[in-house]
Fold each of these.
Amino acid sequence: MPDAPKADRRPVVTPVRVLIALCLTAPFVAMLWVGSYARAEPSVAGVPFFYWYQLAWVVLSTALTLAAYKLHRRDRRSRGAAPDGE
């Protein structure tokens, strides 16, 4: 008997998937809320807050995207799905 079609599967919302979504949306929210960082003080090594805050989010976004990727792979493995690309 053939397997059930993939269209019959409904997405499941789990705490891990919510955490993945938060990791991916946090950088957007932080950068779109300009009023939170549109100032010059405090400066770090003479660089105004406006600039170093944005630069810090480059590094944080990379870390959050990596964390989301790792969580997604672990979630797929725990559900018995084949890894991406196979």
Amino acid sequence: MKSLIETIVEPLVDHPEHIVVTEQEEENKVVYHLQVHENDVGKVIGKNGRIAKSIRTVVYAAGMKSNKKIYLDIM
């Protein structure tokens, strides 16, 4: 899942070397934390959060096979 998030975000940012995805697994959920360069945060979030919502939709759909709820936090 981490590679999927990196693959989606990489073309959106100017500094792809600063993409960091960390995974925090708990009992019934998995939280992915996405960190990008401070100048790229707006590009990942998009106008009114549209790009962030689209990224989350793809990640949630990819994680439907697991029995755990998946969350994506953009920092």
Amino acid sequence: MSQTVFISGASGYIAQHITAKLLAKGYKVIGSVRSAKKGDELKSLFKNENLSYVVVPDIQADGAFDEALKQHPEISVFLHTASPFVFQVEDVEKELLLPAVTGTKVALTSVLNHGPQIKRVVVTSSYAAMFANEDIPDVVSDETTWTELTWEQAKQNGLVGYLASKAFAEKAAWDFVEKEKPNFKLSTVNPTYVFGPQLFDEYATGPVSTSVELIKAVLKLQPTDEVPSVQGPFIDVRDVADAHLVAFESDAAIGQRILLQDGRFSNSKVVEIIKANFPEFKDKIPAPKTTHEEEIKSHCKLDSSKSDKILGIKFISIEQSIKDTVAQFIKVKAV
């Protein structure tokens, strides 16, 4: 297979796993990174001649991807994974909303103008763009629902801003396709909380993705601490990577929003898994005050049956995902 896939934000947590899956299937991969240092680091870790990189310092800049696409007319698939995922921000509009929306529009405009041969585009969105109302048990969120936050509401704080940024960016992508009628077909991948190990141990030693930081926070609890009540739908990063390949390889995925979830996790469940599999944490981590069932009962239902049928993937369990995540943290002495 000699197809060439472009992936923006190639040094990211999910993007690295996607790149590994692509290379394993024989694709050639061109990744965008913010600096040559990051690109060289990736190449030295992957050690694969089918991986190369281009430097795109600012994905919001007009024509950010133009040169990359002009120089590589062999690219036939464009995966846009680059987007901000932070909650601690001073200016929600400037640091979250505008980068997410503008970055998406810039990427698609570059493909429209300089990648006429590109037939498939996949945008990494989020369940954050889909949920109707997390706190109403009778509500069902699925591939048809949208987060109904306004731009003004989004500016409240970083968390609300992040949730809204994913919806605004994804809507911008679908609106772009409807308006411009490009040569390419669009799909989006909408993962929930993403757990699982970093592809390379080196990336587990420092700050990790916001979702995985939740696991690290539990591991750092002391016996006298209280276990924070945290819950949400989850998926393993390796399944997210597989879904991105299906999203451009399968005709069934054309024009679809692919919701990725395999049930709900809670900190109660995370503590239970850690205590059962890692004796060194059995007496260190305090016991939760609530059960898993109590933590998740008051939240909405998710229906991803349409996406599950398109994907045909047997998902990695929450137990395996947490075990692999914790084992890596222990291995690199991150906890």
